[in-house]
Specification:
Blueprint lengths: L9 E2 L11 E4 L9 H14 L18 H11 L6 H19 L6 H8 L4 E6 L3 H9 L9 E4 L11 H10 L6 E5 L2 H9 L3 E5 L13 E3 L2 H10 L4
Parallel strand pairs: 2-3, 2-5, 3-4, 5-6, 6-7
Antiparallel strand pairs: 1-7
Amino acid sequence: MGSSVRSSHVIDLPSETILPVRGIIFDMDGVIVDSEPRHQQAFLEVFAELGYADSHGVDFDLYLGKTDRAVWQDFLKRNQTAETLEALLRRKELRLIELIQSDRPLFEPIPELLRDLALDYSLSVASGSPHRVIETVLALEDLSRYFPVVVSAEDVPRGKPAPDIFLEAAYRMKMDPIELCVVEDSAAGVAAAKAAGMQVIAITNSLPAEKLFEADCVIADYAEIFRILCDSGEG
């Protein structure tokens, strides 16, 4: 589900396509933390414990940017288990937290990038992960200090690609959607941000550029985020 960061360049669209903004909303999984492989590992371990190691029927690529609940709901449509949906959500969440705490898989440029962006912009996180997972990630390198606003899929009625999570973040940031730029790595996240009326920078950590075509900018390196948002003097 996740992949390594590629070499630095902007793909197809120039930085000038991002108009001045006041705030930046970060997706978390696949943007702040290289958690997509850990999500998949946690699911696979729970599937194996349930007796579905080789027959779970889940194509993880279809759920990139979506919620754990969506995965488990579809799993339960195809498979039989005595576990409730809430119990399955909890089991996978706990395993993921263990993996994140053990591996500490922050993308290397993130702490410095957030430090620099926080000088000029209001920052927030809008993540499809539950709050306990978000808190675990933001505890790494004390990243929580940069994010006075944190929104989880648990806080809104619909997950991505619906715009709910980004609109809730804008409300809590006390900003209009037009004043915000979202950093995303998934097609569902890009669609959600655009539906919310926000600009989007998509980074190719998890998907190739052609699957992120709806974004205003598609980039392959974190240095480009700084150049687009800071070096241009837009902050």
